[in-house]
Specification:
Layout lengths: L1 H39 L1 E11 L2 E9 L5 E5 L5 E6 L4 E7 L10 E5 L2 E5 L14 E7 L3 E8 L5 E15 L4 E15 L4 E4 L2 E9 L4 E15 L4 E14 L4 E5 L6 E5 L4 E5 L5 E7 L4 E3 L10 E4 L4 E7 L4 E5 L7 H7 L5
Parallel strand pairs: 3-7, 3-9, 4-8, 4-10, 9-10, 10-11, 11-12, 11-13, 12-14, 13-14, 14-15, 15-16, 15-17, 16-18, 17-22, 18-23, 19-22, 20-23
Antiparallel strand pairs: 1-2, 2-5, 5-8, 6-7, 19-21
Length: 345
């Protein structure tokens, strides 16, 4: 009888053990997959068809890993980056038409660098699809670098903080607002650039045929280059280099600048600088006029000598006019003072 009972217990325990081992193996596989996904930094990847204000087709991905750098390679279609109330970085795309899975955006996360490509192999690049890329960052999120290669895309960036900011598009337009960084380079080959309320230690804006506009911004070292577009700056700068072939250049600062070099071939130059400007340099126009309400120390034509003559001021145009307006006494700029490590007016 005892032998039968033991045999019966063995028969019951063997299937139980096999099932238990199978469950344990399954859990280990799931845990491994989860950890792999976490290492890659992807919370989920889904494709859904639903109505959004920006389109009807969405492929989205929430990044659970840490993102230090963002690189985007996008052929055509709008690109937006901004901050929202969220915990993780979120990337999603939309399209005005149904798209196949091989044309979904391709995302990788490698050592903190988030790389977003139009598709895995760059296939299917077409404006007819109306693809749009959106990257949402949590409020207060700070990055080491952001690089966007937009192709033919319009780029719009709002409330971004990054040490380095590089924005490029060939035939689209670029706009940015409340962007802060150490160094920025923004280029729209055949489109315009419009910025506002931003702060950079060094910023370069470059366009071939579009206008450049930057308002209410604090830029310590500002470089503006355009071939045939107009240039407008309204804010504070410490150092300015601006060049244009056929466009007008208009710039104003209430901070007493250090070095200013502005040149245009056939456009007009209009500068408004503080009354306590201390500068030396030259102005030159071949067929245009030079007008100013400053009183130079030297009566020699083409020579600029103001106050202690501390910093350079050079203004050159071929067939355009030059206007140098004297504004109010220069004010302090807390952002510049922080960069300089001292209080300067």
């Amino acid at each position: 009888m005892l032998s039968k009972i033991k045999n019966f217990e063995f028969k019951l325990s063997l299937p139980f053990i096999i099932k238990s081992v199978a469950v344990i193996l399954f859990l280990l596989i799931c845990l491994t997959a989860f950890n792999h996904g976490k290492a890659e930094g992807f919370g989920f990847d889904s494709f859904v068809n639903r109505d959004y204000e920006y389109g009807t087709t969405v492929s989205e991905r929430v990044i659970s890993g840490e993102v230090d750098e963002i690189t985007v390679n996008w052929q055509c279609g709008d690109i937006e980056i901004y901050q929202v109330a969220a915990v993780n970085v979120k990337v999603y795309e939309s399209a005005s038409k149904e798209i196949d899975s091989d044309m979904f955006m391709d995302i990788t996360l490698d050592s903190g660098e988030l790389i977003v490509n139009w598709s895995e192999n760059g296939v299917g690049a077409s404006k007819e699809l109306g693809k749009k890329l959106v990257i949402e960052l949590p409020f207060g999120y700070e990055l080491d670098s952001v690089t966007i290669n937009g192709g033919d895309s319009n780029i719009d960036v709002k409330k971004l903080v990054s040490d380095a900011v590089n924005l490029y598009t060939a035939y689209g337009k670029i706009s940015f607002d409340r962007v802060e960084g150490d160094e920025g380079f923004v280029k729209a080959s055949y489109g315009g650039i419009k910025g506002s309320s931003s702060k950079f230690e060094s910023l370069t804006l470059r366009a071939n045929e579009g206008d450049l506009s930057l308002k209410d911004s604090d830029i310590y070292t500002l470089n503006l280059f355009t071939a045939s577009g107009n240039t407008l700056f309204d804010g504070d700068f410490c150092e300015l280099t601006a060049k244009s072939y056929s466009g007008n250049i208009t710039a104003e600062t209430k901070y007493r600048p250090h070095d200013v070099n502005v040149s245009s071939t056939s456009g007009n130059i209009v500068l408004s600088l503080p009354s306590n400007l201390s500068a030396f340099g030259e102005y030159k126009t071949v067929s245009g006029e030079f007008v100013t309400d400053y009183e130079f120390k030297s009566e020699e034509e083409g020579i600029i000598e103001l106050n202690a003559e501390e910093y350079e001021l050079n203004l050159t145009t071929t067939s355009g006019n030059i206007t140098l307006n004297k504004g109010e006494r220069g004010r302090q700029n807390s952002y510049f003072s922080k960069l300089l490590g001292e209080d300067e007016g």
